[in-house]
Design goal:
This protein has a three-stranded antiparallel β-sheet, covered by helices on one side. The chain has two helices and three strands; from the N terminus they run βαββα. The chain has helices spanning 15-27, 57-67, and strands at 6-12, 32-36, 48-53.
Amino acid sequence: MQQEEWVKVYESPMLHQATIAQSILKEHHIEAVILNQQDSSYITIGEISVYVALKDSIAAINIIEEAFSDD
C-alpha cells in the first residue's frame, strides 16, 4: 500500500470558510480533508486546515487563491 503525502493548502479560524474551500476543491475533482485543531472549549484558539495530496497541491493552491481573491 502506497501512502500519499498530504499538504496544507488553506487555513482559517472559521469552519465555514474551510468547508467552502473543501467544496471548491471537490468541484475541481481534488480530494481534500479538513483538520480541525480548534479548542473545543474556546473556538477562538486554534486553526482549521484543509489538506490535499501532494500531487494536487499546486493546483489546489491556485484554485483557492482565485476563489478567495475577492475577500
